[in-house]
């Protein structure tokens, strides 16, 4: 088996436990992951998947309601091979089984993972449409692959082993913010990321919530910037305000922004804020800059 197959199998095992490694390939990892959420067998034949996708697409053409899951299936089926591999990595990191921790929080983590998976499919589809890869630029594809792998590893590192364990969150937050922007920034016309994150330690479930919260805010910023593809910057800051309070700030701008920016997280951001015992404030600094800020107990 070649190196690519070995690597894909290792990530595939994170996505679908118990499936023999020799049955996992880059071409079907996203299919297997989504199939598990649909309650299907882990091993999904291509013809079964394609038939499901065709039915969903036909349903959308007939103006019938299409679920978010069906939209994911349709979008992922149209990706190029290289971007399909990237999506496999990102969906592996969005596996609800990877959260760990107390059972009472499992529904919250599953909801967050489902929304993040949808965002990854949507942004990967935009990346594939706006920035098509060709054989003359293999370095770009390799760089995207490394960024996607680093982002997936940072997200998987948030697994909760013991809820009350105190864990540092700075490195994971920095990796999530930087790799998200480096991977998806091109769809917005080029976005620069800067991080200024002090060392901070939190209980493992709060650490997971805070890093995921920062990640969702960064993805929100990229999504808004992608509307006009005017480029810009994203700044992620974490610092202490005294001995018992921390602050997370995500600022972005560089081009005219809408006066009212809706929360596109379907309540996920509010859930994560509640876990870290904080409320978020969003405000415009001026017509070109927007800031989201939370203060939380440490």
Largest sheet: 5 strands, mixed
Shape: globular
The succession of helices and strands, N to C, reads: HHHHHHHEHEEHEEHEE
Mean pLDDT: 77
Outline the low-pLDDT stretches: 1-29, 34-46
The helix tally amounts to 10
Fraction in helix: 40-55%
Amino-to-carboxy terminus distance: 48 Å
Query: Could you tell me the radius of gyration in angstroms?
Result: 19 Å
Spatial arrangement of strands, main beta sheet: 2-4-5-7-6
Global structural class: alpha+beta
Number of strand elements: 7
The portion of residues forming beta strands comes to 15-25%
Keywords:
single chain, 298 residues, alpha+beta, 5-stranded mixed sheet, two-stranded antiparallel sheet, 16% strand, disordered N terminus
């Amino acid at each position: 088996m070649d190196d690519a197959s070995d690597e894909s199998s290792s990530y595939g095992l994170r996505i679908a436990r118990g499936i023999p490694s020799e049955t996992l390939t880059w071409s079907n990892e996203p299919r297997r992951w989504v199939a598990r959420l649909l309650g299907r067998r882990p091993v999904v034949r291509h013809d079964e998947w394609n038939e499901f996708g065709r039915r969903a697409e036909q349903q959308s053409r007939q103006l019938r309601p299409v679920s978010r899951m069906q939209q994911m299936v349709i979008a992922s089926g149209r990706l190029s091979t290289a971007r399909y591999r990237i999506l496999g990595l990102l969906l592996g990191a969005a596996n609800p089984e990877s959260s760990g921790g107390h059972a009472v929080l499992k529904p919250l983590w599953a909801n967050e993972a489902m929304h993040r998976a949808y965002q990854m499919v949507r942004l990967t589809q935009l990346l594939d449409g706006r920035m098509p890869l060709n054989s003359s630029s293999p370095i770009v594809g390799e760089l995207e692959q490394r960024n996607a792998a680093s982002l997936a590893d940072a997200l998987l590192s948030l697994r909760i082993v013991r809820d009350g364990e105190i864990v540092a969150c700075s490195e994971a937050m920095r990796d999530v913010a930087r790799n998200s922007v480096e991977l998806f920034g091109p769809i917005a016309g080029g976005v620069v990321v800067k991080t200024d994150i002090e060392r901070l330690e939190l209980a493992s479930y709060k650490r997971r919530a805070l890093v995921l919260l920062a990640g969702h805010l960064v993805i929100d910023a990229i999504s808004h910037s992608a509307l006009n593809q005017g480029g810009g910057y994203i700044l992620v800051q974490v610092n202490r305000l005294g001995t018992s309070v921390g602050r997370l700030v995500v600022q972005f701008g560089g081009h005219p922004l809408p006066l009212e920016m809706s929360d596109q997280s379907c309540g996920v951001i509010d859930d994560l804020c509640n876990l870290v015992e904080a409320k978020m404030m969003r405000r415009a600094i001026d017509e070109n800059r927007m800031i989201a800020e939370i203060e939380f107990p440490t």
